[in-house]
Amino acid sequence: MKTTDDILKLGDPRLYEICEPVQKEELPLVKTWVKDLHEAMEDIRAQYGFGRGIAAPQLGIMKRLFYLNLDKPYIIINPKIKSPSQELFELWDDCMSFPNLLVKVKRHQSLTLDYLDENWEKQSWTVEGSVSELIQHEFDHLDGVLCTMRAVDDKAFRWKG
Asked: Annotated catalytic, 138?
């Protein structure tokens, strides 16, 4: 069972690596990876009271995959962001790799996400607001970018609690 302790923490060099695409022949592994991501996210939710998504590299799985649990589970394989809005908004972002730290960032208000689902079928999803922000956060993990690197200024950090 994967737990909070399995999530890579701020400073781990793997968090700054660009992930490789998932290959079609790796599809059988995706189910196991998603189970691990789900378990780790549930443990974060239980301990810290937040968590709507987690990216594979946060568990050391260096693949372009993330998992969202919103109104239902979403398995996002090899995503591409299309048509990000010009309109931005600011928010305090949190991350499972540093669960007690908040970082003020700017994100696109809306975007379209093209990806493959767990059946290797092409999907396109247009989102806005908090789901747009969440997707940008998880997508950044696949490129080795943490929200700490997107802070709006040097005062954009605060402890939770």
From this structure: yes
Beta strands 110-116; 122-128: pairing state: antiparallel
Provide CB contacts within 8 A for 137, sequence distance 6+: 53, 93, 95, 107, 147
Check if the beta carbon of residue 53 is closer than 8 Å to that of residue 97.
Answer: no
Q: Contact, 108 vs 88, CB < 8 A? A: yes
| 10-residue averages of pLDDT along the chain (161 residues) | 96 98 97 98 95 98 98 97 98 96 98 98 98 98 98 96 70
pTM over 0.90: yes
**Are residues 110 and 87 in contact, defined by beta-carbon separation less than 8 angstroms?**
yes
Closest CA to 50 of 12, 6, 4, 16: 4
Distance CA 112, CA 6 (A): 31
Tell me the domains of the chain and their CATH numbers: 4-159 (3.90.45.10)
Distance from C-alpha of 57 to C-alpha of 116, rounded to nearest angstrom: 18
| Amino acid of residue 81 | I
